[in-house]
Amino acid sequence: MGGVPRPLSGIDWASWLPTERATLLFVLRDGEILLINKKTGMGAGKINGPGGRIDPGESPLDGAVREVREELCVTPTGVRPAGELYFQFVDGYGMHGIVFTATGYEGELCETHEAAPLWTPVEAIPYDRMWADDRLWIPLMLEGRGFKGYFIFDGDDMLDARVEEAPLEGI
Fold this sequence. Notes:
It is a single chain. This protein is mostly beta strands. It has helices at 60-72, 134-142; strands at 20-29, 32-38, 47-48, 51-53, 75-77, 80-89, 94-102, 104-106, 115-121, 147-154, 157-165. It has 2 helices and 11 strands; from the N terminus they run ββββαβββββαββ. A hairpin with an 8-residue loop joins strand 2 and strand 3. The longest helix is centred in the middle third of the chain and has 13 residues, at 60-72.
């Protein structure tokens, strides 16, 4: 288990440091959400939002926009922060994620080696093909309510979770 406590209560989140920082960005328009079929990297084979790791010296916003460009060949517009996610895996890996939403994009969506775009009605989000935590915080994001989510995973299995509403200042 790598010395990582399984319950969330065993982690001092105030002093916790992630292995990496990453982003997710969801375009929301006309009752639909832009998702991706992830083809490479962490979460390959799952449905997710466009995103990925933040490069050294890059802001979360810049990283989110860059990842959407790389994965779907479009530039998101009307981007705003939506929430934060904290993931601790029992193998010792930790990720801090910043979630953004956008109201649109410029360019033409295209499939890349990393991802295939998937417009989905918000009432038909395929949670059964996504990470287990998504069903806990995506509804808050869709309602425009800021959130923080804390999760412990063992591979693809979510062992513990807590999601709370939170202000978006400081993201």
